[in-house]
Amino acid sequence: MKIALVGGTGKEGHGMALRWLRAGHEVMIGSRDAARASAKADELRGLVGPDKKVLGGDNASAVAQAEVVVLSVPYNAHTATVQGLKAELAGRIIIDITVPLQPPAVRRVHLPPGQAAALETQTILGDTAKVVAALHHVSSAHLGSDHEIECDVLACSDDEAALETALGLIRDLGMRAFHAGPLANAVALESLTPVLLHITKHYKGSGVGIRLTGV
Amino acid sequence: MKIALVGGTGKEGHGMALRWLRAGHEVMIGSRDAARASAKADELRGLVGPDKKVLGGDNASAVAQAEVVVLSVPYNAHTATVQGLKAELAGRIIIDITVPLQPPAVRRVHLPPGQAAALETQTILGDTAKVVAALHHVSSAHLGSDHEIECDVLACSDDEAALETALGLIRDLGMRAFHAGPLANAVALESLTPVLLHITKHYKGSGVGIRLTGV
Questions:
Q1: Which tens digits make up the pLDDT trace of A99-121?
Q2: Quick one: which of A69, A103, A127, B154 has the most CB atoms within 10 Å?
Q3: Do A196 and A209 contact (CB within 8 A), yes or no?
Q4: Which among A108, A151, A179 has the least Cβ separation from residue B184?
Q5: What's the pLDDT at A112?
């Protein structure tokens, strides 16, 4: 599939792009800074080989070429980014991986005004937008590595077809992916991340994640 | 330790009481109906043997005899229960296992007015109350069984000493227990339960739980 990574020059974007390119997908790296996005695309091409399709550009042009869009921006840029791309996002599947952290207290749950970033995305874009919330619990260090990732991914949406597509793409990243219910459940998925960050620090762990049992 | 189970005649109470009695703790079963609590205590004594200490009574008298109190009531009785026991709960360690489910939509996240039941408990009882939120993700079927429970427990509190005591008691139930940060993080712990209920139903699982990885 053709996947745009909005805010794709960050660490999460790097790891997802690498894994999706190796799985045979096309990746468009988006950034507010088109030159940075192009440089990241060149870097990725150097890692995966010249036969893989990866391009870089500003966020709007990256989205315009994609079937699936991954929102990977810090929460303080989230609302403005979604509002600014409203026209381009229409009709596309949007995988929102945003966690509404409130630095410096990133290990304490902070609910945003709309209770979850993904719910805010849906509100901004309207009822027909195909918003999926997912990938909140995987550390960028794991995503950017070559090793197997010991973390399950929970994904939720009010659009069943979009959710099934997202679950398939997440499996292509090399992880188990589970249907986690309606988009309202994004509150639970997003708010678990500061808890995992706390546990990682408290126990001196390394990118603490979760596995489901009994399923 | 002396542990009171408020609302202890339910399925969760049954399993916790069995496991704590076998670990050598004293258990007071509390209920609005003292006769039901006594009957449950008799049933438990029949299961664990006459040398174990288990009594039943109304909630207030159960709490009055305990060092640690477990709140195990449906969310619709939660506020009234905490308000009604305010005097008895003072100074005691309170493990609040309440999940603010909103039947019949129990597989969809619903945040209560105070964002989390445990935060509502703390608000009712005041800043000095020793409230720990924990044990939201373990199904009563697993608790009531003899087998090893494949589920980690996350516990959070603003009182470090109370939290350490709770972590020890949870380990005595036969599970790994982790320090999950300040009580504000109860929002994440409580809201994950409807997600696990959804996954259990969607995948026809059996009491789906979580294990931490990377720790």
A1: 999 999 999 999 999 999 999 99
A2: B154
A3: yes
A4: A108
A5: 97
CB contact under 8 A, B205 and A214: yes
pLDDT at B146: 87
Q: Is residue A215 part of a domain?
A: no
Residue B207 forms part of a structural domain: no
| Chain A residues within 8 A of B110 when measuring between CB atoms | 184
Specify the number of domains making up chain B.
1
* Predicted ipTM of the assembly: 0.96
**pLDDT of amino acid B25:** 98
Instruction: Please list every residue in chain A whose beta carbon sits closer than 8 Å to the beta carbon of residue B182.
Output: 108
Work out the average pLDDT over A131-150: 94
A195 contacts in chain B (CB < 8 Å): 154, 156, 180-181, 185, 188-189
What is residue A185's DSSP assignment?
A: G
Compute the nearest-CA separation of A126 from chain B (Å): 20
- Is residue B164 pLDDT above 90, yes or no? yes
Share of chain B above pLDDT 70, in %: 100
User: Is B215 a member of any domain?
Assistant: no
Size of interface A-B (CB pairs under 8 A): 143
Please enumerate residues of B whose Cβ is less than 8 A from a Cβ of A: 107-111, 115, 139, 150-151, 154, 156, 178-182, 184-185, 187-189, 191-192, 194-196, 198-200, 202-203, 205-215
Q: Do A195 and B181 touch (CB under 8 A)?
A: yes
Mean pLDDT along residues A76-102 = 97
Looking at residue A146, its pLDDT comes to 87
User: Could you tell me if residue B64 is inside a domain?
Assistant: yes
User: Tokens representing B41?
Assistant: 């205590």
Task: Name the DSSP letter for residue B209.
Answer: E
Token pair, residue B52, equals 């174990």
Q: Which residues, 6+ apart, have CB-to-CB distance to B12 below 8 Å? A: B72, B97, B135, B140, B143
Which of these, A75, A71, A77, lies nearest to A101 by C-alpha position? A75
8 Å CB contact of A199 and B178: yes
Record: contact B210-A213, CB cut-off 8 A = yes
Residue A126 lies in domain: 2-202
First to last CA, chain B: 29
Indicate which CATH number applies to the domain containing B23.
Answer: 3.40.50.720
CB atoms within 10 A of CB B59: 27
Q: Which amino acid, one-letter code, is at A53?
A: K
Under a CB-based contact definition with an 8 Å cutoff, are residues B184 and B119 in contact?
yes
Residue carrying the six token digits 């916790």: B16
